[in-house]
Amino acid sequence: MSRAFVKETDDAPTELPDRPVSPHRNLVTAEGLAAIEAEIERLGAAHADAMTKGDNAASAAVARDLRYWTARRASAEVVAAKTDKGQVHFGDIVTVQRQDGRTQTFRIVGEDEADPAHGTVSHVSPLARALFGKGVGDVAEGAGGEIEILAIA
User: Fold this and answer.
1) For the chain, which has fewer Cβ within 10 Å, the N-terminal or C-terminal residue?
2) 1: pLDDT confidence band, cut at 50, 70 and 90?
3) CATH no. of 93-152
């Protein structure tokens, strides 16, 4: 009998497409690398659990994430914090004043570490790129107008 007329079983392995990986260098802080390694460990345990339970859908989803984080770990470039705080660098905590008077403080981190709601922005973000190499008192163009650097830590 032709396979075209046979119903596939629900427990057949599910293949999911890989998560897209950024084309940018994978710069990370030491904390970012530790978070990647913790995620790989967590996903390894979750994958083993899904396999034990025979949950193919969960296994496929976890395997996809595990491939992503393993690739990110392999390409990670840990960037040590610079002691020179005269210019904005990767890993710095920067306080800026926006043109509308708002003051914001954030840390420039790797793409996978970035969470603007928690005070971190990616090193490839337009804001970070505009500030790199500038010092306290310098003004950069950003979304919504000019941004003055008040402090670098």
Assistant:
1) N
2) very low
3) 3.10.50.30
